[in-house]
């Protein structure tokens, strides 16, 4: 009987250790990790998620991170998927500004506080683009046209970063744009090329090929300062063209909510290794991003501050 009891206790302890993923008191994932991308393949969020997943694998030998696109609802489907994994340290999401704009829109029940902040890793600017035969020569031309007539602009999700920027422009200038929603930045490029919309705001990495080939032309950037990358250094900022707006999209990682301190510590440590990998640095260079790091609680504070700044922009009229 004593032998049987001892065997049961040993099996129970082993099971607890397997569920917790413990090794000598530390935690690590058991099996493959899922990196959810809350947008369709081909856009900036997809590129970010895949690059960060590859960098995590490089920084943590033995770790396997499988990327899963869960698009729909302007990012809401993907974030809701992670919401259902509370307490599960094997799930991450490639996060960006939608984690703030979706709750502020009133269209979802979750907020940033339902997830675990892991890391902000980079910032991604925006370029307003049009067809080369467009009558618009600058962002000022676009704004002036939208003050007195119809100007159609694409939205990569109804509550994405482009919606935020165009809303800021409307509030600052009195212009009014006709919005045409799409699920991702990958869908905006063919929409501009095909004449479905007159202008779009895209991340540099999403549109560099078309700018190089001359199939699209850039009118301005929405960063605070001009790009130092030579491919974009000639493009004026919106502010330089008299439009007092600047806004960037952050790129980072959230984990599921309800993680314990060991799980949080593991992912923060893993994220700190990401920026030192060749995979991450290549992604930055290839997609014209700026490295910008915050981890754990510091990232959480950043989200709180940005949330406060966005509230008056996205608040629905009463």
Task: Characterise this structure.
The chain has 318 residues and is of the alpha/beta class. It contains eleven helices and 13 strands. It has helices spanning 2-20, 44-59, 76-83, 98-105, 139-148, 161-173, 185-193, 204-213, 261-274, 278-287, 297-314; strands at 22-23, 26-27, 33-37, 65-69, 91-95, 115-124, 127-130, 152-156, 178-182, 200-202, 217-221, 249-256, 290-295. The strands form four sheets. The chain has a six-stranded mixed sheet, with helices on both faces. The chain has a three-stranded antiparallel sheet with strand order 10-7-11. A two-stranded antiparallel ribbon has the order 1-2. The termini are far apart. The model is unreliable at 1-20 (pLDDT under 50).
Structure summary, number of beta strands: 13
Strand content: 15-25%
- Largest sheet, order of strands side by side? 4-3-5-12-6-13
Which structural category do the helix and sheet elements fall into?
alpha/beta
Largest sheet: 6 strands, mixed
Number of helices: 11
Shape: globular
Radius of gyration: 22 Å
Helix-residue proportion: 40-55%
Estimate the mean pLDDT confidence.
89
Uncertain segments: 1-20
What pattern of helices and strands is seen along the backbone?
HEEEHEHEHEEHEHEHEHEEHHEH
Distance between the termini: 71 Å
